[in-house]
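Quick log. Single chain, no ligands specified.
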Amino acid sequence: MGVTALERLRADTRWREVFDGPGVPHSALPPELVPAAIKYCSDVQTGAPRPLARLIRANGPFATDRGRRELPAWMMYPDDRRWPFIALDPDFEHRMTWRPPGLSACDHEEAVLAEDGRTLTYRFTGTPTPYADYPYAEVFETDQAVLVEPVEVPRDGPDSARLDYAEEREVVVRLAAPLGDRVLIGQAHDPGSATFGSPITVLTSA
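-> predicted structure:
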């Protein structure tokens, strides 16, 4: 599962209810999360350190390559903050998630997985319909990841017009095996870029 923390929480504010639960001692906070927690609780105007807020251990909202999920987290929510501190539990992150270091999220592409687990509708930004077709895509599969590369076939028309704008396109592919726990990755801005190989959200009925 590829995971990135939400920069902003959704309009649904039911997550606030978790802060009604019992708190846990600050000494239980994993050491790797302490610097971020201290920075979060510091004075907004001056940056001066302040005592840590009440600490909660519960499931929190995160963006993943399978959409929004509730995952084990450490959280704080002082009265003077608009958004809570939500950090993915390090043990869960190490055992259950995947994200190569230095990789930036590529959030303008997504895919929809059918109930059969193998039919994938891949949505991407491409050349507008009047200037190109995407009749099929090449699919590369390993035990850990899947890469979909739409094949563009130009239509007759002025080449200069193809660079004026783009639109959302889609192509449907059938995987050799169910996607399962594998990660769908994208080419984004080609090899060498910070977005090459980044996880793409796969929407499912689950």
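The mean pLDDT is 82.
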